[in-house]
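[job 0412] stage=fold_complex status=start
inputs:
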Amino acid sequence: MSPSRYHHGDLKAALVDGAIELIAERGVRGFSLAELSRRAGVTVAAPYRHFADRDELLAAVGVRALHAFRDALAGDCDAGELDASVSPERRAAAMVRGYVVFAAEQRPLFEVLFNANLDKSRFPELRQAWEPVDDLIEGGVHALCPGDEEAAAALGDALEAVAHGHAMLLLDGSYGDAPGTVQEVASRAANAALALIAGRAALATAPATPSPAEPAPGP
Amino acid sequence: MSPSRYHHGDLKAALVDGAIELIAERGVRGFSLAELSRRAGVTVAAPYRHFADRDELLAAVGVRALHAFRDALAGDCDAGELDASVSPERRAAAMVRGYVVFAAEQRPLFEVLFNANLDKSRFPELRQAWEPVDDLIEGGVHALCPGDEEAAAALGDALEAVAHGHAMLLLDGSYGDAPGTVQEVASRAANAALALIAGRAALATAPATPSPAEPAPGP
DNA sequence: GGTCTTATGTTAACGTCATTCACATTGTAA
DNA sequence: TTACAATGTGAATGACGTTAACATAAGACC
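[job 0412] stage=fold_complex status=done
writing structure:
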């Protein structure tokens, strides 16, 4: 294969793969380019031939993560056959479930997306990779609020929030890690999504409880 | 005041204060003990007289953050007079609103609590400081589901998730930062909370959409 | 086949960071 | 006043991200 060993073969791919492993072990926060290089059997300077800096490598991982994320959200509904066989409500709930399960089962990928603090203004690749995900969500939400842009925006935020919030609670270990916990939390999130959808009419109305007393006095 | 200048006076407090400022400027992620020491006019080794390591300092900031957080969640309802004058529903919604507003207005404190990756098993002080917050939330939720432990747990998670999720969306800049955005998002979160509360009956039921096809085949 | 170019690694540095240890200075209590 | 504990300094270590100058391999072109 490589008797010389000077050139790695496909370092770029090996780095992305290795990064995911390393993040799985130590979290995004404990991820280090130096350790990654070491594991790839290469000098610390080598990655810089393929990525401008640490964040650009993480962004590449992020792009891969977003593809997997989209698939996880779409679930099996992606084949396109059961367009009418499943209600938009159950679809949306399934997406929320997929969100939480993805966070748990693909923890390193999820962490890269939400805990790596990547600058979205840099990395157009990342912004672009978000689009299919956003489209999927937006599509699901619009099916629930046909015609009402305002309601769709509010419901979309609420569903994202409920999914993301449950995922965070799960990952931060606020629950124990008993077996079955993932499905349990995912079910709670899905149920919450159904509750939100049921009450969607109230979401886009005027602020509830704007301020009990004064309208927010300056400090 | 201090003609000698060898001893700082109250370095410990100055470090905690300075940490909050520094985090406000650079985020928890950009926070550095070295820079903090420099600003305090002290050597990099000095903080170690007061904190075992970087994380212990951050934990101290976290404790302060949790006090402020509790107050923000309790809002003006803390005086204890209006026990009956406000419905539990509006109370809970107000707490969710307070959660989001706190995240926006006390960003550095919020970041320490949720983005610093502090090990909760270390730092009993931190765990203890969480208790009043947890009690407050639990109390609010139990007022909504008297007697039903199961429902209360599910509703509590859902409310936390909705609050946390909206806070994250806000802080990650998924919205622009137009003025008024904070109140707007807080209102959305509060409305979502009301919707969840209205549909609370469905939250603790059997898993909705357990799995469209097979029961999760192994990879 | 032999040479030039380009892609890809290596070596050796720099500056920053967290952390530690031996030592200096101060405030306090005996 | 003198001893001690608390607090700060100086200098060092080792990990990290990043860069620049140099080395080697792989192909293109003749």
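[job 0412] summary: Residues 6-8, 11, 42-43, 45-46, 49-50 of chain B lie near DNA strand D (CB under 10 Å from a C1').
[job 0412] exit 0
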